[in-house]
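Hey,
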Amino acid sequence: MWAALNDSRTRWGDADIFITKHGWVGALTLRRVLSLDKNNEPSMKPAEELRTLRTNHFQKKNLTVKDSELRIDDIQGNDLELDVTIAPQGAKQFGTQVCCAPDGSEQTTIVYNSKEEVVCVDLSRTSLDKSLTEGFYEDHDYKQEAELKLKPNETLNLHVFLDRSVMEAFVNNRLCLTHRIYPTRDDGKGVAFFARGGAIRIPKLDAWKMHPSNPW
């Protein structure tokens, strides 16, 4: 399956103006494979062919974060694939931040709320370009939430793809949260993990630079 991904810099009625100025508007998402898992429940995964874009593999194991933020200095970029497993150990909220500026003025946050059992993409600091607040982000309260109930002893898996202005986050192969993001700072390419109100353990973190694919 492909999904349509609109350009969040255009408001309703403005698409024609945007197309005239830039020559394009919107994009398609990555290919997603839909199936039923062993429990006959819906599953959504990125197409395996995307692995051919991987280069410069980086891996970390057995990291712990408690009531703090852990910046991974070895991972930088806005053309990345991240595959991280997070085991909650009492943390009320936890997740990852991507496209982070060094001072935190820009960042896109993917957070899981253990009490409310929802995963959320927080766009409140995605971009310093305030013109975006006049469009999509303002209308949607700067965030997108989806229900995700973790089963007993189930870990959280975030499989995130960054491609310049596109972020797609597959969560436990059960849902995908997708957004257009527009950081303005050239140094906004950091990656961090955080835990609030407790601790998390990261048994395994894999990251790759995404090599540009050949044009069709």
